[in-house]
């Protein structure tokens, strides 16, 4: 797992009423046509993150609290640095946190498009550092999890399949993306 694009915007501004993204970096009150009233813009953390396994790199988006947690910053700080001060975020602590670590990631796949083109985005629902000790005697549910042969970030269908059974299980199973 890595953030390869350090110069992306790490947050977006959205209407505090309808949560619609606005293509602006000026944080001021505006007349929202959808809400039909004057609302304020609030920043929301959102950025692209690259998932790397043995064979491929997949780009997924991560947003809101999960993104803030990953960057160890609040969205107000992120907005202040990237939009108000127009600086790039210092990601050294994030690179360090990711180095030589394996993460189990749950992804949600969303598709849209017309009849001949389909766009697919992956969003991260959860991420968890994978511990190097494969068996835990105290956790009986871990016995159900197959040992992993792949030693890098688990993405797509595999990631969901190996997620602990106590994780939220309501998400539809992601379809494999390797054959896209
Ligand atoms: Zn609105």
Automatic annotation (TrEMBL):
Residues 161-180 are annotated as: Disordered. Residues 171-180 have a biased composition (Pro residues). It holds the Pfam family Rep_fac-A_C. InterPro entries: NA-bd_OB-fold (IPR012340), Rep_factor-A_C (IPR013955). It comes from the Eukaryota. Residues 14-124 form the Replication factor A C-terminal domain. This is Replication factor A C-terminal domain-containing protein.
């Amino acid at each position: 797992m890595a953030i390869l694009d350090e110069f992306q915007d790490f947050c977006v501004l959205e209407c505090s009423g309808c949560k619609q993204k606005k293509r602006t970096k000026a944080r001021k009150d505006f007349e929202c046509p959808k809400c039909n009233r004057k609302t304020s813009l609030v920043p929301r953390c959102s950025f692209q993150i690259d998932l790397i396994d043995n064979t491929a790199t997949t780009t997924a988006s991560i947003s809101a609290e999960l993104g803030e947690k990953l960057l160890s910053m609040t969205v107000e700080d992120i907005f202040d640095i990237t939009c108000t001060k127009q600086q790039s975020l210092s990601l050294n602590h994030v690179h360090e946190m990711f180095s030589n670590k394996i993460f189990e990631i749950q992804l949600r796949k969303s598709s849209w498009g017309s009849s001949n083109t389909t766009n697919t985005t992956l969003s991260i629902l959860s991420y968890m550092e994978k511990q190097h000790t494969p068996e835990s005697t105290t956790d009986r549910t871990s016995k159900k999890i197959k040992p992993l042969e792949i030693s890098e970030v688990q993405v797509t269908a595999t990631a969901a399949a190996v997620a602990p059974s106590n994780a939220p299980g309501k998400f539809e199973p992601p379809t494999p993306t390797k054959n896209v």
